[in-house]
Write a structure and sequence with these properties.
34% of the residues lie in helices and 25% in strands. The chain is α/β, with parallel strands linked by helices and 326 residues long. It starts with a strand and ends in a 6-residue tail after the last strand.
């Protein structure tokens, strides 16, 4: 499509460990249009962060991209021999990321001003020479955009001198300083209290809309996904099992895993605790040959054990990877 900004096609990623290679991502497919807001939802360990780090090109050294493509604005970032150069091109002005743990994302021995200045010089200084004052002015500007009070003082602070919510806003300011086309937010409200979570999410949504950016939000919360995004990808054990417009997913979920997630959400009416989904995600050293949800699925068919389902179109932009809807 002409307005497609990101197309991840058939991405397989593993991790080298002592016992072999963990086969984590198994043919991930994800498409985003310019200005679109999507969510990637799934339980812990299903590969959400690995997918986003693959897009950013910041996977750890033990990771192995076995095959697949990551096309950003029509350019394959995984072209053999040019991966590093492709990533260096998009990071300064194309894709930026807000990490889930601001304590780990910020260097404790440098001030906020030093770290923010380095990001600005890296992202904006590649096309023009920047003076010290222009870098400082740009840093103050993005801190103001991130709703941080007294940005001049914040520049002189070390991360440990800030609250959790303020540290996360600094990370958002760093992401905004690259002025990219796509913002990836990887569980940006982790370890924040509820009121601060709401403030951070509102800030991200407003900034994305004002800047005309696309948003890829990684979250455990279906409620946050419903509030923030236009389309939702449901991810299980390194595979996309369902993708649909946000309201369509909540009105009529198809995949047994999606139904299980929705059934696990606590109800405000106090009608009891959700049953959850029995079992656990598979061992990535020896994952199931077919559908990876097969061992936990109450609606499994015999063919699910050895055959991997495609994403079948069930209408209205809704697709589901399940033989029940073939």
């Amino acid at each position: 499509m002409a307005n497609t900004i990101l197309n991840v096609d058939g991405l397989h990623v593993g991790y080298r460990v002592y016992g072999g290679t963990l086969k984590v991502l198994d043919g991930i497919r994800l498409v985003m249009d310019a200005g679109e807001k999507i969510a990637v939802v799934g339980e812990t360990g299903c590969g959400k962060t690995t997918t986003m780090k693959s897009i950013m090109g910041i996977l750890p050294r033990q990771a192995v991209i076995r095959k697949g493509q990551i096309n950003f604005k029509g350019r394959n970032l995984l072209t053999p021999g040019t991966e590093a150069r492709g990533m260096r091109t998009i990071r300064p002005k194309g894709v930026s990321m807000v990490f889930q743990d601001p304590i780990a994302a910020l260097n404790p021995v440098f001030t906020v001003g030093q770290q923010l200045s380095d990001v600005i010089k890296y992202s904006r200084g590649q096309t023009k020479q920047l003076s010290k004052q222009s870098v400082r002015d740009a840093a103050i500007e993005v801190l103001k955009l991130s709703a941080l009070p007294d940005p001049e003082r914040i520049l002189t602070n070390y991360p440990f001198q800030l609250s959790g919510g303020m540290r996360q806003r600094v990370c958002i300011a760093m992401a905004l300083s690259t002025a990219g086309d796509l913002l990836i937010a990887d569980e940006p409200t982790t370890n924040l209290d509820v009121t601060i979570q709401d403030q951070v999410l509102r800030l991200i949504r407003n900034l994305v809309e004002e800047q005309g950016m696309s948003l890829a939000l990684v979250t455990h919360s279906l409620g946050v996904a419903r509030q923030m995004t236009d389309r939702i990808y449901i991810m299980y054990a390194g595979t996309m099992v369902e993708v649909a417009p946000t309201e369509g997913l909540f009105d009529k979920p198809f995949h047994p895993y999606t139904k299980g997630l929705l059934g696990s959400v606590p109800k405000l009416t106090g009608e009891g605790i959700g049953l959850g989904i029995p079992g656990r995600i598979p061992d990535y050293l020896k994952p199931p040959a077919g559908c990876r949800f097969y061992p936990r699925c109450e609606e499994a068919l015999p063919e699910c054990k050895d055959n991997k389902p495609e994403l079948y179109d069930v209408g209205g932009g809704h697709r589901v990877a399940c033989f029940l809807y073939r």
